[in-house]
Amino acid sequence: MAESAIQIRRRGSGADPHIVVIGAGFTGLAAAYQLTSLGMSVTVLEGDAEVGGLAGSFEVNGEQLERFYHHWFATDSHIMQLVGELGGEHNIIYRPTRTGMYFAKNLFNLSTPLDVLRFKPLRYADRIRLAALVLRARAVKDWKQLESLTAEQWLSQLGGEAVYKIVWEPLLRGKFGSHAPDISAVWFWNKLKLRGGSRNRRGNEVLAYYRGGFAALAQRLAAEITARGGEIRTGAAASALLVDGNRVTGVKTAREVIEADAVIATPALPIIADLLRPHVPADYVDRLCKIQYLANVCVVLDLDRSLSKTYWLNVNDPGFPFVAVIEHTNFEPTETYGGRHIVYLSKYLAESDPLYAMSDAQMLDYSLPHLQRMFPDFARSWILASHVWRARFAQPIVLRGYRDLIPSAETALEGFYIATMAQIYPEDRGTNYAVREGRAIARRVCERMRRSQSAPAQTGPD
Ligand SMILES: Cc1cc2nc3c(=O)[nH]c(=O)nc-3n(C[C@H](O)[C@H](O)[C@H](O)COP(=O)(O)OP(=O)(O)OC[C@H]3O[C@@H](n4cnc5c(N)ncnc54)[C@H](O)[C@@H]3O)c2cc1C
What we know:
By secondary structure, the protein is of the alpha/beta class. The protein contains 13 helices and 20 strands. α2 (26-37) packs parallel to α13 (431-454), α5 packs across α8 (185-197) and α6 runs antiparallel to α7. Residues 1-13 and 457-462 have low confidence and may be disordered. Flavin-adenine dinucleotide (FAD) is lined by residues 22-28, 45-48, 53-55, 68-72, 237-238, 266-267, 271, 296, 346, 391, 394, 420-421, 429-432, 434.
């Protein structure tokens, strides 16, 4: 490739290299923040009207609330560090939370190891097995040894058949539906490690929240990017790429073309595949589309009273369509929302599932009778307001052998990089890892650009 084709310059101005980041979720914002720290010029393009992506919010009584329930674990160090850099440590609030399980028409408290020993649906020997399983799972250091196993195989080996059938299988089925038997042991190991690692000395789970909601942090990050000279354009979806030879040179939106020396794409892989399709070999695009996703529908209820004292209620009864009932105001106080009690009903499903196409009113009519069976006192009159949120690409499906499907950050198109939720492994999606990966890709792109800038001529792929 000729030297002139790879020279780095801000198109038209001859200034710093210019990088376009597609997506203003936590990955894109963290990447842009890091790029501005490294002295790069950056434009973030976001299709939505607001920043925040899956951690975005809506208003309840004038306060921002996540469309999809969000918390951090005490071990989420990458995002905590970023909050610290932004001078916002005082906004991180740690609180003990109560976890429970709905099973066979009963609510069980499962917050501490002692609760596990009192968990009546299991025989006493199986309760001990369950407690031991959690400890043994957390002790696994080399997750690669689990890669050949499904979660079902691993959990059955560790805790026995009864523990698997009552405790784990309903959770796997509730979340992954027909994919449940093929989910990787690595995915489940990570969940056990995270939840187990976020406990205080008494064994209670301690979770963290950002004062003002996750959207407030996304907005703080966006403000910092802008203050450092970066641009964030909302309502500006990337619709196509500008390509010269095999190198990306810009991004098109409905209104403009933004020239770029490099592009970092953070949306879900099928969206990235659509952008790349006209410019790269078909088999590369096919490989990008190998990872499947689940969608999510969250019904959010503002209630005039509480359902229970539990924050996170796993639904282990197969007769119920939700994987969990999350009473957010048993974590962040009800006073924040003017006394309203906030409850999320979470349903993961295939995008093709008829439930995903239901109107908000239909979804509510479908959901409430189930909630009423769980909480017999609950009445529709308790509802002050309701909201239904949908995310098409909510959860990558982490099957056995997942690592082989993960695309690398460099793509078949020079200068075009991918940093997306589906590449997070062995951990699972989460804002903490979005920040880690966003910052890492920014450093990598910057280093590549500096290296190629200083090289007299470069012929290899970047
Ligand atoms: C139900 C649910 C519960 C969750 N709970 C937690 C939790 O408790 N704690 C936690 O840390 N994480 C949680 N997560 C995960 C967390 O929300 C995500 O991991 C994280 O927000 C992903 O950030 P991201 O930037 O990688 O992706 P996204 O947030 O998906 O951001 C991608 C962005 O790209 C934009 N975009 C798409 N196409 C285009 C285009 N063509 N042009 C421009 N922009 C485009 C999208 O609008 C979006 O804003 C949860 C997720 C869900 C679905």
